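S.,

Sequence below, as promised.
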Amino acid sequence: MNTTTVTNFRKNIYGMLEKTVRFNEILHIVTKDGNAVVISEDDYNSLMETLYLTSIPEMREKLIDGLQTPLDETVSEDLVEW
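The prediction came back faster than expected:
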């Protein structure tokens, strides 16, 4: 995560936003009244999807179960029909 002041952000807004968008680099902006975080739209959408999925009790349990399943007990991606 990159940290900058709001003054520096104003001076370099295009370049800093470009890095955030292109490289998914989180930007932490410090001000005297509080701080802000800038993330790419892709990261934001992923975060919102994760929050949504984990808000569904059954889905949350399936995700936890999947994370705890050893890889040798799973089906190879090559064998899955998409």
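The beta strands are 2-5, 27-31, 34-38.

Coffee later?
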